[in-house]
Amino acid sequence: MAEIVTSAFSLLGKAAAAPIKDAALRRPQVIATLKKLRLDPKQPPRDFHSLYAYTLVESLYGRPDSLLRVFKDEYIQQSFYRSFADDDWSRLEREISVAVERNRETGEFGHLPYDLMGEVSTFISDFHRLVSRSRMAYETRLENKINNVSEMLDQVLKTRHEEEEHRQAEDPERADSSPAERLKDDARDWFLAVGYRVRKEWRTEHSGVALLVEIPQRRRGKFDVIVALCVDGELAPYHLETLQVLIDEEEAAEGWGIAQLRVSQAARRKANQSNGDIYCYSFDELIDLEADFEPYIDWLEQEVRDRHIDTRFVPLSCRKEEIDPRTEKAFETSAYEWRDGGLDNYVDAWLADPAKKHLSILGEFGMGKSWFALHLAGRLAAGWKDAKTRGVARPRIPLVIPLRDYAKQTSVAALLSEFFFHKHRIEIRNYDVFRILNQMGRFLLIFDGFDEMASRTDRNTMVSNFWELAKVVEPGAKVLLSSRTEYFPEAKEARDLFGARVTSAATAVPSEGPTFEIVELVPFDDEQIRLMLGHLLTPEKLEVAMENEGVRDLMRRPVMSELVIDALPEIERGAVINLARIYLYAIKRKMDRDVSSERTFTSRADKLFFLCEVAWEMIRTNQLSLNYKEFPERLRSCFGPAVQNSKDLDYWEQDMRNQSMLVRNSRGDYGPSHKSLLEFLIAFRFAAELGLLEGDFLRLIPGAEKTDGESYSWSRYFASRSEDLRLPNLSGFEAEDAERLAENFGSAEYNPVVFDFLATMIKESSDYQEILIRHIRSTASLADPRSLGGNCANLLAQAGGSLAGADLSGADLKGLGYTGDSHVDISLEGANLSGADLNRANIAYLNKRRANFREARLRGSGLLQSRVSAQQVVAHDNGAITAHLSAQRGKRPWMREDHRALHWPSGDIRQEPVVVHLTPDSAGLWTEMCGVFNWTDDTWGYSDVRGSVIVSSATGEVIKQITEICIDSIRWGDERAFLVTDGSKGELHWKIVDHNSKKLASVRDDFPDLGKGIRVRGMVATSQGVNMWASSESETWIYEMTSETDGFREVMRLPVGTSHAVEGVPPMDLMADDENVYLRDTESRCVVSSRRAAGDALEEMSSAHFVSLSPDNRYLVVGGATKLAVWEIESEGWRKLWARPLSSAVSTPPAIMADGSQMMIALDSGEFAVWKVRDGQRLAVITFNPHLDGACFSRNGDLEECEQESIALSGGVFDA
């Protein structure tokens, strides 16, 4: 509701409480009220909301409160707005009738006037009279119209043609057909989908194609026979003459002339004169006979208006990471600024491109994903209606499908059936009609909220949900999918999932899944914030908000706009500003406003308790709505004796439905305006249950912190009412008992938004760290603590606390470290964890120095995972060794910092290396292409954002330097050369730079035409040049480029592709079919061995992380999560030479010396070792792990011998 309308109702409510009996005194009071609203009594305003407020005062001043309630109702206001904009007042009449019926059941308006419709008619007349007085009446009527519809429809026609060309490219038979034959094929598919029978088809004169079709009558088993004539181009009168002949020949009941797009006026006139024998249709009009989408389009436009998206939407900016197909990592970012069209222009271009992938929009909570989905749908809906009216090509129908509804269904097909047949009652015969229209490109499927498909966000569920959605992504479909960014642990996981490259154990993956390009929303800048608030605030208040830096930071998320407005009084008083406090201030003001402006039977505390309980149930069950019929039972479960009386229950129900910040839809379902409201309320509840709700957050409970009050637990307080049902005085909340905490907070899955809110709240308590540690310790005595200990530890980390030195002996820390896209960063230094259960925790990367782990359960805890490890290892021809070392960065384990190149000239890693510090970019990010590389016997190279450098192996002196980033070194003719990326040309373009002259030796962008379904899998430097691997599902091509070739030439073709990859190993490295095993060698060619000869080695490789062949192709090194093995490859049979257990997974492909005698292995535990290839002797080992120095362990624990060795190497101590 606009601020001026809210203010008008507030003033009118006071007038209703003290009505004026003398009519002569009314006019001065009306004028005074208009002036209080800053409205000119002599001149009505220009905009709709001010005009509505003006009419309220003129027409309803001093009228009964019940009449005010009617016009205050949100749905009545929205229907009034729509009726005025479309000049169709029947909509308002229908909504009034619904409201009257609802009032009979709920009594929410009170006693209504006998002639309510007469009162409404008078109000409409007054409104029209004021519109006529306004100088901008015409502009007022048109303010909600969408501009540039004609431009959109012109693009639709162009896109239709391009989509048809794309279909022909995909289907050679369609390409060979005439336009009339293609239309006939579409018509036949449509007829079959809607239950018609096609008896026969034949060619006619004028290049037409006819179909004899049986259409079911209402009587079972009876059919009408019609002739459908499909023509090329425009349907003209002479086609109808042909059609009449065909009707007579086939003795058909009637004839249908069908054109793809255009029907001439003369043809329509001739059909109208045929006495019902002949009808003319474009293909869109043919679809209209059996599929009525108009009511859904009307609903969609109304929804856009109801949410004020049509008047308040601010364009969004977005960015897109450009991915290098060689490494499948991001190397550039494209920015689409809102001033230049931003996300709107990007999506328009995507919609217009028939060959583009589907689109996923990612953004943090509150960034505007759902608003954009409806904004886009509203634009398309307006274009669709206009196109239908004008008889031109229509844009895709936008189907906005909230995925939060998926939790109520068993499949996406069931979700869509619910969408069509129940939620919107779209009149289509069956689900097959949807499938055919989807394949024909008639829909844009907008799946909103991928993160809301399930209440649990484990990886298997996420992957299964994607493949469930993939079932409706058919050729011809366009799909836009939105999701919270934080749903994905890292950007690569989102790329892998939306690229259809991952599966779960429970998911059968189709041979070719849908692929999505990904764009990410960018936070609002100051100008966008000003535009957004300008829709809602007066100029004076706008400046107050914009001058507050804290407010501007919060307003980077569009969802915060109305909350910030509610919190403005506190902001003006200089109150502390953060995300949680804005919700706090807004909720308090909203509830206080309800209490002051309307009669209420429940306190703010009651409403808050009810909302918190409902929020927890909604999130816990992933059912984000509550139907009005469920309110009584929910109230009884929350308030018990207070609502036993049916009259009291009615009063409480009315309050909770109308004054609880829940929003109602047309079906009577109540839910939050945004999911983040639920997340705030859950955090509030958890803080109280933990005994950590203090300060301003506690004072949200009226009368809290009273000196004569007692401490209560959350559950006991709201059950402790007096005989008159009043709540007792409250000094503060004490913690629930450990069992109840385990049931509630202990069962909560980590939600970053909830935990962010919660961390802000608990920091109001000076002893939050001690209280959380006490809760963790309590898990030692619980039979089933669930994740109570882990959640408390994660919360402590998020609040900036520490577990250093804490006594956690015997505690159960299940869930510690399982925090979605961020890694817990909390110190365990010196903590007593003796006997603790950590086998379902993740303590990787944490500081564990001097911690006591005696008798602790550590299996699967990530104990040995090191923050510092080798990311790349190079074995030089002269025996030297170079490693690229990096440290995990803060809370993001996939982001690395503190990069170093370590070089051992002698090859003895036990000696001090030459150390070079590598430089990330200015934002602290590391370009994945940077690293170390081989050069000559006495030199080696490294690259970072400064460029690429060749240094002396003996002294570290810089020998050569270029400004480009070197991917690898290659031999180019007789010389060494740098292989570098060519950022000016984008993906798959490379420069080869001569190392002496530093000038360009070659640019290669003449890549072979790979064809449909074939992707580049990698490009690798070899001793003579560059090799490229490309593969389809069933074949692989290897191309070679040297100084002597004219670009890339094919050197090998393999009868295996991505479907033959061994899970866990890159397809380039290992593939297998029923006959052979295919391995990539050091020259990036392929070694083929029979599957029979490989024997048991293939099974062992299926669990590997990396496989590497020695330079002579004699030995195969297999490195996995727990084991290192070497096989000798012989034609008669592979032979396992040795296998050794590992303390952790191999972190980078093994580096093997040129003579095949030794290899270097780096592990995630920070170990770095040199091994003999032939017999498995470990010649030297060091560790980079800094986390375990002085930590104590028991030898009789659950650690393997190799793990104990790694701990000891890192400075850990074992009991004797």
Q: What is the SS-derived class?
A: alpha+beta
- Alpha-carbon distance between the two ends: 73 Å
What is the share of helical residues?
A: 25-40%
Poorly predicted tracts of residues: 135-147, 505-511, 890-896, 922-926, 984-988
Instruction: Tell me which oligomeric state these chains represent.
Output: single chain
Per CATH, the architecture of the domain at 294-490 and 510-522 is 3-Layer(aba) Sandwich
Supply Rg. 35 Å
Strand order, sheet with most strands: 7-6-12-8-11-10-9
Largest sheet: 7 strands, mixed
Count of strand segments? 46
Tally of separate helices:
41
Overview of the molecule:
By secondary structure, this protein is an alpha+beta fold. Among the domains are: 3-142, no CATH class; 150-193 and 195-288, 3-Layer(aba) Sandwich (Trna Endonuclease, Chain: A, domain 1); 294-490 and 510-522, 3-Layer(aba) Sandwich (Rossmann fold); 525-577, no CATH class; 579-765, no CATH class; 1062-1184, Methylamine Dehydrogenase, Chain H (7 Propeller). The strands form 12 sheets. It has a 7-stranded mixed sheet with strand order 7-6-12-8-11-10-9, with helices on both faces. The longest helix is centred in the first third of the chain and has 22 residues, at 149-170. The radius of gyration is 35 Å and the shape is globular. The termini are far apart. The model is unreliable at 135-147, 505-511, 890-896, 922-926 and 984-988 (pLDDT under 50).
